[in-house]
Amino acid sequence: MNCTPKFPSPRRNLAYTQEDFHFCHLLTKTRRRVGKSCSQDQTASQRLPCKMGSVSMATPVQELATDGQDPSERYNYGGSGGGALNASVPLVEIPTVDVGRLISSPSAANHELQKLSLALSSWGCFQVVNHGMTNSFVDRVHEISKQFFDLPKEEKHRYIREPDSIEGYGTDMIVAENQTLDWIDRLYLTLNPPNHVQLKFWPEKPETFRETLQEYGVKLGELNQILLKAMAKSLDLEENCFLDQYGEGALMTARFNLYPPCPRPDQIIGVKPHADASALTFLLPDKEVGGLQFLKDNEWFTVPIIPHALLVNVGDQAEVIMSNGVFKSPVHRVVTNSEKERHSLAVFCIPSAGQEIKPAEGLISETRPALYKKEFGVPKTKAAYHKDPTSVRLLGRLFAF
Ligand SMILES: O=C(O)CCC(=O)C(=O)O
Ligand SMILES: [Fe+2]
């Protein structure tokens, strides 16, 4: 079977290349990451290549977990001031949006729009149900992730990330010598635009991997359109005003995340606190194992699992530029546990790199001027967006794509 992704061709060339995008991403991470020196306390098998300025990778966490060795100090996130990472964190119901209702009669839609508007301006995230994908299809997406990470290591290593790239199979990227590492292995792939798809990183096993991921990308593209229109309507704006900012050649990237059981969940983190740099992120969390937490009013909350639901969160592009600060791009993290591995799949939707993104007209007035300057679609640090770089609200955040 020919599984080459068949995406529509972009109508014009991108002003920025994927490499520019990656470079910007790496700079962001390099500036933001803090932690301990890599020379501390490593056994030979855990010795980590540390190449400042280029991307390097460590031994996959899955292999460390199987070896049963005590993880090196480079994974120790303890002492971050927040107490034991596995201390109890309250569960909180974040708003749930029913997409079927959102696109049905105006009265049913209005109710959902109100929920959506509240979710976007308070939590910056919401659970999406009735999203048009069957449970069995969502299960297939879960399965390809699990089946890929369950492959023998030699097979997975065929897709290993290359130096200076973020695409492929690997660990938390090493971009700074003193970086504390996340307890995570990843497979990172570009889904769109078609001329940026690097099929050599798309696993051939399991056999259903490529076609399932491709289909998932198409479905998320449709959902992204529905939600962007609804987000505009929830603010009484013209329904295409956000969608139009994506432009031709919008970027969609997928990150399969594996968090193996962790021997020190009180001190080792799955993903450090960060905000996504995308416009919107579609997360398919594990159906059984929790760990995702959101920060609200300086307190961490655990997200409950709703099997087969997607969790959508606003990224910095949608907060700082498109919505002029009305939508919130939430800080979130993933904690580990010692018993069970956890899987998730994050898909990041990012306006075309050549597209100028700016606040919707209707969100700017004399009393509420544009908070941020216009930018092109390449995601940057929040500081880079700000009109006055000295007054960044959230300096010290980490960013992820
Ligand atoms: O694994 C999760 O639930 C969240 C992952 C995440 O935040 C990310 O990949 O940006
Ligand atoms: Fe994230």
Automatic annotation (TrEMBL):
GO terms for molecular function: L-ascorbic acid binding; metal ion binding; oxidoreductase activity. Gene3D superfamilies: B-lactam Antibiotic, Isopenicillin N Synthase, Chain. InterPro entries: DIOX_N, IPNS-like_FE2OG_OXY, IPNS-like_sf, Oxoglu/Fe-dep_dioxygenase_dom, Plant_2OG-oxidoreductases. Keywords: Iron, Metal-binding, Oxidoreductase, Vitamin C. PROSITE patterns: FE2OG_OXY. Residues 250-351 form the Fe2OG dioxygenase domain. Pfam families: 2OG-FeII_Oxy, DIOX_N. Belongs to the iron/ascorbate-dependent oxidoreductase family. This is Fe2OG dioxygenase domain-containing protein.
